[in-house]
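Example S7 (structure tokens).
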């Protein structure tokens, strides 16, 4: 009965997160489709500009992912007054992060010429980043307010913000890319300005919620600004920096795979991109469950209920496995149909359909990796998972992928398929290691609680 209640609680928390992730993906798709209508150079510039800001901001996002479990543990312990104290330290870090990211984007003329050879694409990319850079304060603000809301077990604001963001992004792209409604026709660069506007719209929604909704009343950020508290700054960095590095390790593995197969035939490169894109879309389900697991485990640990935390972690894994079985069945049975949605080229579709079979197996491994990582973050255990991720992805996956994909030591080069085989092996190993770590951490908390709370003597 308790496990069923926990499953329902996780679904209630995870569903808005999953929908928000899909809306975010839809925003990127809108940018790509509209820029493509403006021209090939515009599409290339927008794609490169998006890749650059995503790469530069991924560490900042990972750092503030620590806000979720820290706030959740304070909620569980009913230490509500400490939450705004901690959050105002996070705001200080956010201000510094904003200045760094804004500066890196504005200095694009220093590094873009070394990346982009085509002068027209270079111009579009630079102009896109110039426009986008004005949305950086709002983007970092979302990075802070989203996990703050999640830590309070209130995931709806980010969903509403994502809806508003997409609603702003579409007409803004239409006006600024093509020059409608009196706006200048900026081409692909207009997508950067439109994205900045959509970020400000989303941030405004989340700021309004945090200021006015009753869910934030006990831990309001708006009553007064607390002075600097070094111990809480260290708290954020100690939990958040390993999360940021883990996220970098995981994201970089896919970027490096795309880089390694850059010399393969065009059809293979395109097929790999399709498989990666589909994997990202279905990844929203385990990712949302991971966020919910962080909330529930953090809250239960803060409340001094280690058995409840362990039950929440188990429920998250079971829920992720159920989602993975559904995703796997869809990818296996409809691989060819899904591939043809992306391309009319028969050769590309055939390659993509084969890679989607590996992506299907990928889902089962992800069902253990992602929710266990979320649960471990709920325990504020982030350093060891970083080491496990480095072992699984950089020490095992990359060398194995290179050997299978491009080398001829073990077998004839398999290209993209070889790298996908290595990704499945690496992710499976990560799942085993992360699950073992979660089991050890959860047991340790139960034992600590058992020792620290004496039993009531019998009369």
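Recovered sequence:
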């Amino acid at each position: 009965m308790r496990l069923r209640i926990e499953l329902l609680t996780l679904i209630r928390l995870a569903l808005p997160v999953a929908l928000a992730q899909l809306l975010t993906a839809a925003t990127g798709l809108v940018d790509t489709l509209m820029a493509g209508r403006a021209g090939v150079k515009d599409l290339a510039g927008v794609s490169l500009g998006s890749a650059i800001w995503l790469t530069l901001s991924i560490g900042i996002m990972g750092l503030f992912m620590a806000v979720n479990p820290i706030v959740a543990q304070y909620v569980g312990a009913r230490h509500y007054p400490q939450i705004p104290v901690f959050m105002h330290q996070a705001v200080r870090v956010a201000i510094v992060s904003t200045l760094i990211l804004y500066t890196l984007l504005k200095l694009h003329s220093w590094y873009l010429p070394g990346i982009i050879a085509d002068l027209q694409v270079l111009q579009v990319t630079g102009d896109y980043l110039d426009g986008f850079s004005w949305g950086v304060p709002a983007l970092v603000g979302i990075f802070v307010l989203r996990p703050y809301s999640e830590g309070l077990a209130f995931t709806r604001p980010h969903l509403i913000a994502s809806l508003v963001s997409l609603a702003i992004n579409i007409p803004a792209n239409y006006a600024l890319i093509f020059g409608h409604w009196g706006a200048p026709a900026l081409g692909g660069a207009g997508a950067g300005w439109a994205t900045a506007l959509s970020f400000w719209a989303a941030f405004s929604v989340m700021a309004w919620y945090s200021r006015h909704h009753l869910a934030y009343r006990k831990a309001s950020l708006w009553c007064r600004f607390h002075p600097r508290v070094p111990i809480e700054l260290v708290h954020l960095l100690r939990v958040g920096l390993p999360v940021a590095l883990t996220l970098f390790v995981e994201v970089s593995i896919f970027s490096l795979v795309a880089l390694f197969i850059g010399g393969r035939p065009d059809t293979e490169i395109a097929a790999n991109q399709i498989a990666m894109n589909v994997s990202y879309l279905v990844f929203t389900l385990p990712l949302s469950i991971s966020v919910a697991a962080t909330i529930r485990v953090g809250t239960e640990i803060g409340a001094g209920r280690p058995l409840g935390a362990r039950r929440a972690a188990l429920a998250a894994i079971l829920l992720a496995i159920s989602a993975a079985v559904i995703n796997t069945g869809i990818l296996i049975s409809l691989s060819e149909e899904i591939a043809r949605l992306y391309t009319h080229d028969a050769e590309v579709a055939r390659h993509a359909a084969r890679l989607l079979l590996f992506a299907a197996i990928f889902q089962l491994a992800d069902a253990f990796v992602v929710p266990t990582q979320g649960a471990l973050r709920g325990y504020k255990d982030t350093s060891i998972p970083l080491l496990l991720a480095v072992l699984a992805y950089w020490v095992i996956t990359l060398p194995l992928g290179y050997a299978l994909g491009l080398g001829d030591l073990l077998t004839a080069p398999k290209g993209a398929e070889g790298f996908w085989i290595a990704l499945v092996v690496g992710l499976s190993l990560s799942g085993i290691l992360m699950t073992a770590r979660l089991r050890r951490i959860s047991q340790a908390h139960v034992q600590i609680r058992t020792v620290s709370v004496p039993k009531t003597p019998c009369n």
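Notes on this example. The two ends are 32 Å apart (CA to CA).
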